[in-house]
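BUG: 3D viewer hangs when loading the predicted structure for this chain

Environment: internal workstation, default settings.
Expected: structure renders.
Actual: progress bar stalls at 90%.

Input used:
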Amino acid sequence: MLIELVPGEAGGSAVEPLQALVYSPEVMQTWVGRDVTWAHAFQRVLVRETKGGPVISHVGIFVREAEWDGLPVTLGGIGGVMTHPDHRRKGHARAALRRALTYLYDEAKVGFALLFVEPHNVAFYAHQGWQRFQGDVLVKQPGGVAPFTKFGAMTLGIRGGAGATQGKIDLRGLPW
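C-alpha coordinates produced before the viewer hung:
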Protein backbone atom coordinates (compact mmCIF):
# COMPACT_ATOMS: atom_id res chain seq x y z
CA MET A 1 0.00 0.00 0.00
CA LEU A 2 1.36 3.41 -1.02
CA ILE A 3 0.03 6.46 0.81
CA GLU A 4 0.66 9.95 -0.48
CA LEU A 5 -0.39 13.43 0.60
CA VAL A 6 -1.06 15.77 -2.33
CA PRO A 7 -2.49 19.26 -2.73
CA GLY A 8 -6.26 19.21 -3.14
CA GLU A 9 -6.50 20.53 -6.68
CA ALA A 10 -3.58 18.46 -7.94
CA GLY A 11 -5.11 15.23 -6.64
CA GLY A 12 -8.62 15.89 -7.87
CA SER A 13 -8.19 14.27 -11.28
CA ALA A 14 -6.57 11.17 -9.75
CA VAL A 15 -9.65 10.67 -7.55
CA GLU A 16 -12.25 11.11 -10.32
CA PRO A 17 -12.33 7.43 -11.45
CA LEU A 18 -12.79 6.24 -7.85
CA GLN A 19 -15.47 8.84 -7.22
CA ALA A 20 -17.33 7.85 -10.40
CA LEU A 21 -17.34 4.23 -9.22
CA VAL A 22 -18.30 4.86 -5.59
CA TYR A 23 -20.88 7.52 -6.46
CA SER A 24 -22.27 5.95 -9.62
CA PRO A 25 -25.38 7.45 -11.26
CA GLU A 26 -27.45 4.74 -9.55
CA VAL A 27 -26.10 5.68 -6.12
CA MET A 28 -26.51 9.40 -6.80
CA GLN A 29 -30.24 8.96 -7.50
CA THR A 30 -30.91 8.23 -3.83
CA TRP A 31 -27.84 9.57 -1.97
CA VAL A 32 -28.85 12.17 0.60
CA GLY A 33 -25.86 14.39 -0.30
CA ARG A 34 -26.63 14.64 -4.00
CA ASP A 35 -28.06 18.17 -3.76
CA VAL A 36 -25.42 19.58 -1.40
CA THR A 37 -22.80 22.05 -2.62
CA TRP A 38 -19.55 20.68 -1.16
CA ALA A 39 -16.20 22.37 -0.47
CA HIS A 40 -13.12 21.18 -2.36
CA ALA A 41 -10.37 19.46 -0.39
CA PHE A 42 -7.36 21.52 0.67
CA GLN A 43 -5.17 18.41 0.75
CA ARG A 44 -5.84 14.79 -0.21
CA VAL A 45 -4.57 11.46 1.00
CA LEU A 46 -4.40 8.98 -1.87
CA VAL A 47 -3.90 5.26 -1.39
CA ARG A 48 -2.66 3.10 -4.26
CA GLU A 49 -1.51 -0.49 -4.44
CA THR A 50 1.40 0.35 -6.73
CA LYS A 51 3.25 3.49 -7.76
CA GLY A 52 1.28 5.15 -10.55
CA GLY A 53 -1.62 2.75 -10.08
CA PRO A 54 -5.22 3.84 -9.66
CA VAL A 55 -6.36 5.43 -6.42
CA ILE A 56 -8.13 2.78 -4.33
CA SER A 57 -8.87 4.91 -1.26
CA HIS A 58 -9.16 8.64 -0.61
CA VAL A 59 -9.53 11.07 2.28
CA GLY A 60 -10.03 14.78 1.73
CA ILE A 61 -8.52 17.22 4.24
CA PHE A 62 -9.97 20.64 5.00
CA VAL A 63 -8.67 23.44 7.23
CA ARG A 64 -11.02 26.25 8.06
CA GLU A 65 -11.23 29.28 10.31
CA ALA A 66 -14.61 28.71 11.93
CA GLU A 67 -16.51 29.47 15.16
CA TRP A 68 -17.42 27.18 18.01
CA ASP A 69 -19.98 28.73 20.37
CA GLY A 70 -19.07 32.18 19.05
CA LEU A 71 -15.31 31.81 19.55
CA PRO A 72 -12.82 31.58 16.68
CA VAL A 73 -11.29 28.15 16.08
CA THR A 74 -9.06 26.64 13.44
CA LEU A 75 -10.92 23.51 12.52
CA GLY A 76 -9.72 20.45 10.65
CA GLY A 77 -12.10 18.60 8.40
CA ILE A 78 -12.26 15.11 6.97
CA GLY A 79 -14.45 14.48 3.95
CA GLY A 80 -14.81 12.58 0.73
CA VAL A 81 -13.69 9.34 2.38
CA MET A 82 -14.10 6.51 -0.11
CA THR A 83 -12.58 3.15 -0.96
CA HIS A 84 -12.93 1.04 -4.08
CA PRO A 85 -15.51 -1.71 -3.38
CA ASP A 86 -12.95 -4.45 -4.18
CA HIS A 87 -10.53 -3.07 -1.57
CA ARG A 88 -12.83 -2.45 1.39
CA ARG A 89 -12.23 -3.94 4.84
CA LYS A 90 -8.48 -4.16 4.22
CA GLY A 91 -7.42 -1.13 6.29
CA HIS A 92 -6.95 1.32 3.42
CA ALA A 93 -9.41 3.95 4.67
CA ARG A 94 -8.09 3.59 8.22
CA ALA A 95 -4.50 4.14 7.03
CA ALA A 96 -5.52 7.14 4.90
CA LEU A 97 -7.44 8.61 7.83
CA ARG A 98 -4.41 8.22 10.12
CA ARG A 99 -2.25 10.05 7.57
CA ALA A 100 -4.83 12.85 7.31
CA LEU A 101 -4.97 13.22 11.09
CA THR A 102 -1.17 13.35 11.26
CA TYR A 103 -1.28 16.25 8.81
CA LEU A 104 -3.93 18.03 10.88
CA TYR A 105 -1.79 17.59 14.02
CA ASP A 106 1.72 18.25 12.67
CA GLU A 107 1.14 20.81 9.94
CA ALA A 108 -2.27 22.42 10.36
CA LYS A 109 -2.06 22.35 14.18
CA VAL A 110 -5.84 22.29 14.61
CA GLY A 111 -7.53 21.77 17.97
CA PHE A 112 -10.10 19.32 16.73
CA ALA A 113 -11.48 17.81 13.55
CA LEU A 114 -15.02 17.51 12.23
CA LEU A 115 -16.58 15.16 9.73
CA PHE A 116 -20.06 14.52 8.42
CA VAL A 117 -21.23 10.94 8.50
CA GLU A 118 -24.02 8.74 7.24
CA PRO A 119 -25.58 6.48 9.89
CA HIS A 120 -24.03 3.28 8.48
CA ASN A 121 -20.50 4.71 8.99
CA VAL A 122 -20.86 5.95 12.58
CA ALA A 123 -19.45 2.74 14.10
CA PHE A 124 -16.33 2.89 11.89
CA TYR A 125 -15.48 6.41 13.04
CA ALA A 126 -16.46 5.76 16.67
CA HIS A 127 -13.99 2.85 16.67
CA GLN A 128 -11.31 5.38 15.59
CA GLY A 129 -12.14 7.62 18.58
CA TRP A 130 -14.56 10.07 16.95
CA GLN A 131 -17.53 11.28 19.02
CA ARG A 132 -20.97 12.39 17.90
CA PHE A 133 -21.47 16.12 17.95
CA GLN A 134 -24.72 17.03 19.70
CA GLY A 135 -25.44 20.51 18.44
CA ASP A 136 -25.85 22.58 15.32
CA VAL A 137 -23.33 22.92 12.53
CA LEU A 138 -24.02 25.92 10.33
CA VAL A 139 -22.92 25.75 6.69
CA LYS A 140 -23.24 27.90 3.60
CA GLN A 141 -25.31 26.67 0.70
CA PRO A 142 -26.64 28.52 -2.35
CA GLY A 143 -29.78 29.46 -0.36
CA GLY A 144 -27.82 30.94 2.56
CA VAL A 145 -26.47 29.80 5.92
CA ALA A 146 -28.41 27.11 7.79
CA PRO A 147 -27.94 24.14 10.11
CA PHE A 148 -26.60 21.12 8.20
CA THR A 149 -29.02 18.31 8.98
CA LYS A 150 -28.54 15.93 6.05
CA PHE A 151 -25.70 14.12 7.86
CA GLY A 152 -24.64 13.56 11.43
CA ALA A 153 -21.49 15.29 12.66
CA MET A 154 -18.62 13.74 14.59
CA THR A 155 -15.54 15.35 16.12
CA LEU A 156 -12.12 14.19 17.24
CA GLY A 157 -9.67 16.00 19.52
CA ILE A 158 -6.39 16.64 17.72
CA ARG A 159 -4.43 18.85 20.13
CA GLY A 160 -4.97 19.37 23.80
CA GLY A 161 -7.91 17.15 24.60
CA ALA A 162 -11.27 16.14 23.24
CA GLY A 163 -13.12 17.51 20.28
CA ALA A 164 -16.23 19.58 20.67
CA THR A 165 -19.20 17.39 21.50
CA GLN A 166 -21.94 20.01 21.81
CA GLY A 167 -22.79 23.61 21.09
CA LYS A 168 -22.83 25.44 17.77
CA ILE A 169 -20.17 25.29 15.08
CA ASP A 170 -20.32 27.81 12.25
CA LEU A 171 -18.15 26.54 9.41
CA ARG A 172 -18.23 29.95 7.74
CA GLY A 173 -18.35 28.13 4.44
CA LEU A 174 -19.41 25.04 2.56
CA PRO A 175 -19.53 21.61 4.21
CA TRP A 176 -17.02 18.93 3.38
